[in-house]
UniProtKB/TrEMBL annotation:
The chain crosses the membrane at residues 20-40, 55-74, 99-126, 146-163, 170-189, 231-247, 259-278. The keyword Transmembrane applies. This is ABC transporter permease. It comes from the Bacteria. Keywords: Membrane, Transmembrane, Transmembrane helix. It comes from Geobacillus icigianus.
């Protein structure tokens, strides 16, 4: 009964506090300001799922006022030692702490529902379709808004118990606020960049490692059991510290011993919850995990020994949970050491030939199988795990055809890195090696549990079966629609795609036809299956499906009006030829021609590709002269030059030859 009256008492104190209510009101006022700035930005991003990342800054601001209020409230109660006037004074002190925590948690629960309601209203207003995105939004806000704000009461109470009304208390509040806020990873970015998701040091951060990204296409919001276990570990640690800090207020030895016995349980619970956090935490959204993975590819030898003297007839893939079993049917096997490409971060449990285990070695993404005799089938058993390049979170996974998520007949690693100079600095970049697939096709049979959002292989009964160059499989959060004969998949946070898709498809078809006027494309026509994304996925074009990433710069219908759209269509459809610099400058000039062809203003006729600065001065002057002469040509002459250039380009192609052809084109008025 006394606890009930304490709860009511603190609830009334909270509602009457100008500091507490003012801080809560400021949270929503600042949120409204952020929404206003977001929607008045002419370069509004496509990914509306990233809007909730604003709560990290808001929580950081508001939490300071909460800590101060709880400290002042509790320290004033301790100042006169009222609890010592009663025989059960220590019990009263604990009841006050628990009642105050319960009141604050209830109020923050109300704020959580209000925040979720505000975001949901905004999503419905902009046209984000109803889906489980709204439920995962609630879970995201519970982990990154409700959780950190609930802990503020414990910060204030602990500081009050330890320092009471001493002036140094405010310095302690400031220090705790800085070190425990969700913005810690940004404030100490040099440190957070080195902490992996499953390092013990990651437990020091209650916020995200990279706060700018809250949502990934098809994977959803960054919420997993790891974040919830981490909050539980923090909560238990602070409750234990509060108990330990209050021990000097005990009045009897019996009370002191009871507190010490209770406290002994906390280290076990804290270690248990922290361990579960590390085991279930995702790697997909951390800076350090991605940096480490890309660094591994930088260290891998690009020139590798691979024996590809075999053919693949068919694949039989079984994916149940995280366990993958792939049966590969072989033909024309002319070696006992066949090499396959398989993602090196997937634990490979075994390889069997005719139901017998065989030895294998791994070199990066290349797996060499040691066969004692020739065989017609190989069975790979391995684990699908969460990584930076292929995230696997909450049962959602995006297995793209350009990634080696199943064994492929390839002689290179899945991902390659390269460097070039930009603005006088060395810059590293990378790309997946399967951007352009071989023309050969295989028969695929996929047996997959759970709901599948997209697969380029048609579904026949309970399995997916058909012929394809490679397979893309998406089990995630997104939407489907059919428009003009195209099967379109798009992220759950994209609004009004039913209205915007026709414009996008028409522009893609038109641009693809224009590209075919200047170069031979990897596929003859735009595939009827298209997967859109706004971040994280690569882009590639196969005979039966297209994966297209807008890079988050614009809405998809705005993006088709910009330079990057035309450059990407070129890079997706036109295979590289000649030297890297020659191909990239051809792409750069062809992009400008496409924009001119579509009556769009060209940003800069003199702009060069990213590889320009890495060239000698003499070559740079030649390239500059090509750009200057190219601008003076009419549209038809530009088309003739680009077509002739690409048809004849090889490793021996020189800039003198480009200039020579340009003069020929100008001399005959575009007829060559």
């Amino acid at each position: 009964m006394r606890w009930k009256w304490l709860f009511v008492f603190y609830w009334k104190r909270l509602l009457k506090s100008k500091l507490y209510i003012g801080a809560s009101f400021s949270f929503f006022l600042l949120l409204a300001v952020r929404f206003t700035l977001f929607f008045t930005d002419p370069y509004n991003m496509e990914s509306y799922g990233d809007i909730p990342h604003e709560v990290f800054m808001l929580v950081q601001i508001v939490s300071l006022f909460y800590i101060v209020w709880f400290y002042l409230l509790y320290s004033n109660e301790l100042r006169y030692g009222v609890s010592s006037w009663f025989a059960d004074g220590y019990r009263i002190l604990l009841e006050k702490m628990s009642a105050l925590l319960a009141v604050h948690a209830l109020y923050q629960g109300i704020m959580l529902m209000m925040s979720c309601g505000v975001f949901s209203i905004v999503y419905l207003f902009v046209g984000v379709e109803p889906s489980d995105l709204y439920l995962s939004l609630l879970r995201f806000l519970a982990v990154y808004q409700f959780g950190p704000l609930v802990l503020t009461v414990l910060y204030g109470v602990i500081i009050a118990l330890l320092l009471e009304t001493k002036k140094v208390s405010f310095f302690a509040i400031l220090l705790v606020w800085i070190l425990t806020g969700p913005m810690t990873t940004e404030l100490f970015i040099d440190l957070s960049k080195t902490v992996h998701a499953r390092d013990w040091a990651s437990l020091l951060f209650i916020g995200k490692h990279a706060i700018q990204r809250a949502y990934d296409s098809y994977i959803g919001f960054e919420v997993d059991r790891g974040g919830e276990w981490k909050w539980a570990a923090w909560f238990l640690s602070l409750v234990g510290l509060a108990l330990l800090s209050s021990i000097r207020f005990t009045q009897t030895r019996k009370e002191r011993n009871a507190v010490l016995k209770a406290f002994l349980v906390f280290p076990f619970l804290i270690v248990l919850t922290a361990y579960h956090s590390l085991q279930t935490n995702t790697k997909a959204f951390t800076r350090a995990d991605q940096t480490t993975e890309l660094e591994e590819y930088r260290q891998m030898k690009q020139e590798t020994n691979a024996d590809l003297r075999y053919r693949i007839q068919s694949y039989d893939l079984s994916l149940h949970g995280s366990r993958a079993v792939v049966r590969v049917a072989l033909s024309q096997l002319e070696t006992n050491r066949p090499t396959f490409q398989l993602y090196h971060l997937y634990p490979l449990h075994s390889i069997e030939a005719d139901h017998q285990p065989v030895k294998f070695t791994r070199n990066g993404d290349l797996v060499t199988v040691w066969l004692p005799k020739r065989t017609s089938t190989l069975t790979f058993s391995y684990e699908i795990v969460d990584t930076a390049l292929i995230p696997y979170t909450n049962g959602r996974i995006v297995l793209l055809a350009d990634r080696a998520w199943y064994p492929k007949r390839r002689a290179s690693h899945m991902y390659r890195t390269y460097e070039y100079r930009m603005a006088g600095m060395t810059v590293w970049d990378g790309a997946f090696t399967d951007q352009f697939f071989p023309d050969e096709t295989y028969t695929f049979t996929l047996n997959v549990d759970g709901d599948v959002l997209f697969c380029n292989v048609p579904k026949r009964g309970t399995v997916y079966r058909g012929k394809a160059q490679a397979v893309t499989l998406i089990k995630g959060q997104g939407h489907q629609l059919v428009d003009q004969g195209y099967e379109i998949i798009y992220p759950a946070d994209w609004p009004h795609m039913a209205e915007r898709a026709p414009t996008v498809i028409r522009q893609m078809e038109k641009t693809f036809r224009h590209v075919q006027q200047i170069a031979s494309t990897a596929v003859s026509s735009l595939p009827n299956k298209i997967v859109f994304s706004s971040f994280g996925l690569s882009s590639f074009l196969a005979h039966d499906h297209l994966v297209y990433n807008t890079d988050d710069l614009y809405g998809i219908d705005q993006y088709i009006m910009e330079q990057n759209f035309y450059e990407k269509i070129l890079r997706l459809s036109v295979p590289p030829k000649g030297s890297r610099i020659m191909y990239n400058e051809w792409i750069s000039l062809a992009t400008r021609w496409l924009m001119q062809k579509n009556d769009l203003p060209v940003i800069d006729w003199s702009s060069k590709s990213e590889w320009f600065e890495s060239q000698p001065q003499s070559v740079q002057k030649q390239i500059e002269s090509v750009y200057s002469e190219f601008q003076s040509l009419d549209v038809d002459q530009k088309q003739q030059l680009l077509r002739t250039w690409y048809e004849n380009m090889d490793d021996a192609w020189t800039w003198d030859r480009v200039i020579e052809i340009m003069q020929e084109v100008k001399g005959v008025g575009g007829r060559h």
